[in-house]
Amino acid sequence: AAPFFVQTFAKEIFKSEYESYEGLLRVVIHNRFKFAQKHFPMIKILIQEVPFQSELKNEIQQLVETELFSHFKKLIVKFQEEGEIIEIPPSSVLRLTLSAVLGLLLTRFLLLPEEKWNDEAEIENTIQF
């Protein structure tokens, strides 16, 4: 299931052109938010299993690198060249972005799901951060 979801996400995200990093983030966060709402029980199982299943972990790592990270890094370089993102290594920009997005999703769906969330405001705050 995981490889299919990675490939589907990549197709959904990279089929469009983005005029800004903010625009890309908006699409990515909304996409992953809807995915987490729909599939969180499966995500929890993956979070628990991946560290102990080296074959699954390797497969996911390879897919994420080829299907996602390489494409994201190219977009990051493009936005850096346009002066929209500071000049730090693209892998650092990606790591910092992932930290913010995953922080939102894990807090919202795993750590504090019972809180009264204003999802749109939290998504917007994450994008602006």
TrEMBL record:
Name of the protein: TetR/AcrR family transcriptional regulator
SUPFAM superfamilies: Tetracyclin repressor-like, C-terminal domain
InterPro entries: Tet_transcr_reg_TetR-rel_C_sf (IPR036271)
Organism for this UniProt entry: Bacillus cereus
